[in-house]
Amino acid sequence: MSTNANDPRPGLAEGREVELTTELAEPIVADPAVRLKAALYYAARGWPVFPCEPDGKAPLGTLVPHGVKNATTEPARITAWWTRRPDANVAIATGAPAVDVIDVDNKPDGDGFAAFNRLVRAGVLAGTLALVRTPSGGIHAYRTGTDQGCGRLGSHFIDFKARGGYVIAPPSTVQGRPYVLTEHRPTGTPVDWARIKRILDPPRPVRPAAPRAGHTPQGVAGLVSWLSGQREGNRNNALFWAACRAVESGAEGSDLDRLLNAALSIGLAEGPARATIRSAMRHKGVSA
Length: 288
Fold this sequence. Notes:
This protein is of the alpha+beta class.
């Protein structure tokens, strides 16, 4: 399983953006014996495999009634499977001890290429073991396997295949079109799916907890007292809200310094806190 030297796309190891093709893989007539060799190759790397329907993605139920749970690295069983069905597609059970796979979809209603390149620019994809072009023109990025669960970011057309999942692997085909290995390197590193989610779907800022009805802070002293009770995760937004209310009431100078001191007392850094107060002043049309 070697890298395709004719593939013009730059390598992920260098951290350069990848120009992903939207073209379908060309149909091929595969030598059935190659699939057994591939299955044994993956198993020799410690990656459990199992057979799927010829030219399809569903587990071959006559041989593996429990699907991915029947995956193995045992050469004798693998040989028996592909001796009975040499045309069966090869599936790799994802997660440790095999690989986690970032699956970039390419569908009529959209694709995950833009999201994938955002991850490249963020440095998340350095350490990729292999890149595989899928029959639809999408891509599978293989990473060192972990115990993370599978995930999906549907709006970005990105799936994460890990513990409990599986991927169809080269040289398998779907609708006559092959999975093609385009890059390969001997070692890789795990990827943090939680980090990928934070990059592609960052959490929305927490809105400050508004005072309860009938308990609106009175004057700067009330705002200072209210701000002093805010907890981590809400502090900067709370400071902005309090500074806006203070500016609305005509506070300036030493009054805003009292809010600054309250912000420092709950753990905000001075530089960012001052910047938040200036932002609140500008928001209310006051020169900062």
